[in-house]
Design a protein that fits this description.
Layout lengths: L5 H10 L14 H12 L3 H8 E3 L9 E2 L2 H7 L5 H32 L5 H13 L2 H15 L5 H25 L4 H8 L4 H29 L3 H7 L6 H11 L2 H22 L12
Antiparallel strand pairs: 1-2
Helix pairs in contact: 3-13, 4-13, 5-8, 5-10, 5-12, 6-8, 7-11, 8-10, 8-11, 9-10, 10-13, 12-13
């Protein structure tokens, strides 16, 4: 068989165990869902109130005067919010894509195979998560100055990979640890090419792990302030950099409104991928 068709793909889907939809081992009670919802929403309530507050002095429980001033300012070009949002999204997406490309072969090698020096490799991968980032970024900054990557978009993307890669590689290593290579062998026996094997066999099996790793990668890159400030040299304005600038200015209303904008995409992404955070990987079925 020279080409893998949809018919063969459906046949594999009928027999492969990871084709079944994963189900939670228990159903969360309504009370638990209410507590989870309160834990997520409650910290945001003061920010919402502050973002509309014009005058709010102690001991008043609520602001004595309300205003749209903070939101109107953030919507104006002078705030640079649009530029910061575009920079944050493009950097986080690029870091997520690059970390997945690097993490897939690394996680496969660490999860499926035993080789000499595997413990040392794991230690090196975990090292950026253990060492203080302020010390690491100073050395990286000097190296980037010499090769012309300082104060550039590419330099910021590359330096964000430093704290992201340990999480992406470890999550994918766990996804591949219970992956059965026999399914790939059966697909190749039926005539599937390497790309078809990856698309129809490997990718569905590790998809939850890849989604969880991508979620961590995006959120870690999205929230980077120190690395962006030092490597970006003030030329790369992202939402965390803008948020710290307004926080230092002492304008609580604008800071609260910008904080809500900063949290919104991350919270939305978390809700979209929450079903993959159950700890049940289809590769383990």
């Amino acid at each position: 068989m020279g080409r893998l068709g949809d018919r063969e793909t459906r046949r594999w889907g009928d027999v492969l165990p990871f084709s079944r939809s994963p189900r939670l081992p228990f159903s969360p009670s309504p009370v638990l869902l209410v507590f989870i919802l309160l834990g997520v929403v409650a910290p945001l309530v003061p920010l919402v109130i502050w973002s509309f507050a014009h005058r709010w002095f102690f001991p008043a429980v609520l602001p004595t005067e309300w205003s749209w001033r903070a939101w109107a300012y953030l919507a104006s070009p002078a705030s640079q919010v649009n530029k910061a949002m575009v920079n944050s999204v493009t950097v986080a997406l690029a870091v997520t894509a690059l970390s997945a490309l690097i993490g897939l072969p690394a996680g496969r090698a660490l999860g499926l195979y035993e080789f000499r020096g595997k413990t040392a490799v794991l230690f090196l991968i975990l090292a950026p998560a253990i060492m203080p980032m302020i010390a690491v970024v100073m050395g990286i900054h000097i190296a980037f100055l010499r090769v012309g990557l300082a104060d550039t978009w590419l330099g910021v993307v590359l330096v964000h990979l430093v704290p992201v890669m340990p999480y992406m590689v470890l999550v994918l290593t766990a996804a591949f640890a219970n992956y059965d290579l026999d399914y790939e062998g059966q697909a190749r026996t039926l005539g599937a090419r390497p790309l078809q094997v990856f698309r129809h066999i490997t990718l569905p099996a590790i998809w939850p792990g890849l989604m969880v790793g991508s979620l961590f990668a995006f959120l870690i890159s999205w929230s980077q302030y120190l690395l962006t400030l030092i490597i970006g040299g003030g030329q790369m304005i992202t939402l965390p950099v803008l948020l710290f600038a307004f926080a230092n200015s002492g304008d609580n209303a604008i800071t609260a409104a910008l904080s809500l904008l900063f949290i919104a995409p991350a919270l939305l992404l978390f809700l979209l991928t929450a079903r993959y955070l159950t700890g049940r990987n289809v590769a383990m079925v």
